[in-house]
């Protein structure tokens, strides 16, 4: 059921950073470290050479460029401005799978637990870029409001919406729309309640893609009906007050549940 259009899956899991660090093993036993204004990058992707356009130094610079441009976008789109330097670890894909695959109920490309960890590649592909931007949103919320636990649909929906927005994909594609509309017609869309836990790890490999897509669709629904600036205002208000329901009522004049019902109606009408 995971068609090629279903987005790669990312999640936030509760994992002790100390435990995870203890398991860190580089592809060659060591991590290269490089810093920029707002990030400290560690990477152990098995890249043959250090210099040249396909070398590890160029790779690290490109990862940091994507992250720094994402950092600028955080303020523009979500009004989030993390003040501390964020740590990012890019793993050799085989090492990432061997170390972390067992922790997730479905294939994960990255996760955030105190630091950003992503499954690397030998080049900064679109998929890697999207993973970095997605996890950046989780890290930014944690830096901005450490004790705040957002409902999963909002946490993942904002991360998916941001990475789509930041890579020039403004709306759901017709294929994504049709997929959700088909699910709606079968009465098989995930309920808002099932999307409102701490994360989406309760979904299995067959349904997680839909849960992430619906979450992004719901954030996109708010952006389409209230304007993208209201997404930023919402995030600012939630970061300031910690009260999701009240922030929605104040900024959009509707509760999350009312937006959810309106989005379902929209999908059913197609
Ligand atoms: Zn996520």
What is shown here, in short?
The chain is 51% helix and 9% strand.
Protein architecture, described:
The chain has 270 residues and is of the alpha/beta class. It has two domains: 11-144, Zincin-like (2-Layer Sandwich), CATH 3.30.2010.30; 152-268. The chain contains ten helices and six strands, in the order E-H-E-E-H-E-H-E-E-H-H-H-H-H-H-H. A hairpin with a 3-residue loop joins strand 2 and strand 3. Mean pLDDT is 88; it is low at 1-10 and 12-26. The site of zinc ion has 7 residues, from strand 1, helix 4 and helix 5.
Largest sheet: 6 strands, mixed
State the end-to-end distance. Answer: 22 Å
Which band does the percent of strand residues land in? Answer: 5-15%
Query: What do we call the CATH topology of the largest domain?
Result: Zincin-like
Tally the beta strands: 6
Radius of gyration: 18 Å
Number of domains: 2
Which structural category do the helix and sheet elements fall into?
Answer: alpha/beta
Element string (H = helix, E = strand): EHEEHEHEEHHHHHHH
Low-pLDDT stretches = 1-10, 12-26
The distinct ligands, each listed once, are: zinc ion
CATH architecture annotation of the largest domain: 2-Layer Sandwich
Number of helices: 10
Instruction: Report the principal-axis shape.
Output: globular
What is the helix content? 40-55%
- Whole-number average pLDDT? 88
Strand order of the largest sheet: 1-5-6-4-3-2
């Amino acid at each position: 059921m995971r068609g090629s259009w279903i987005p790669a899956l990312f999640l936030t899991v509760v994992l002790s950073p100390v435990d995870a660090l203890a398991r860190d093993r580089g592809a060659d036993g060591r991590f290269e470290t490089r810093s920029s204004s707002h990030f400290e990058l560690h990477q152990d992707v098995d890249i043959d050479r250090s210099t040249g356009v396909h070398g590890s130094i160029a790779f690290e610079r490109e990862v940091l460029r994507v992250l720094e441009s994402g950092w600028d976008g955080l303020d523009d789109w979500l009004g989030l401005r993390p003040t501390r330097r964020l740590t990012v670890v890019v793993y050799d894909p085989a090492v990432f799978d061997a170390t972390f695959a067992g922790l997730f109920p479905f294939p994960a490309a990255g996760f955030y637990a105190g630091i950003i960890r992503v499954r690397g590649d030998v080049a900064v592909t679109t998929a890697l870029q999207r993973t970095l931007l997605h996890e950046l949103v989780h890290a930014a919320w944690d830096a901005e409001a450490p004790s705040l636990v957002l409902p999963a649909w909002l946490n993942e929906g904002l991360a998916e919406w941001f990475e789509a927005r930041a890579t020039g994909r403004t709306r759901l594609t017709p294929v994504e729309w049709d997929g959700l509309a088909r699910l709606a017609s079968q009465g098989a869309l995930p309920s808002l309640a099932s999307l409102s836990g701490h994360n989406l790890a309760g979904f299995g490999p067959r349904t997680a893609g839909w849960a992430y897509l619906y979450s992004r669709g719901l954030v996109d629904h708010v952006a389409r009906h209230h304007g993208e600036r209201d997404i930023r205002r919402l995030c600012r208000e939630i970061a300031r007050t910690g009260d999701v329901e009240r922030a929605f009522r104040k900024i959009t004049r509707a509760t999350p549940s009312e937006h959810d019902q309106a989005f379902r109606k929209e999908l059913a009408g197609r």
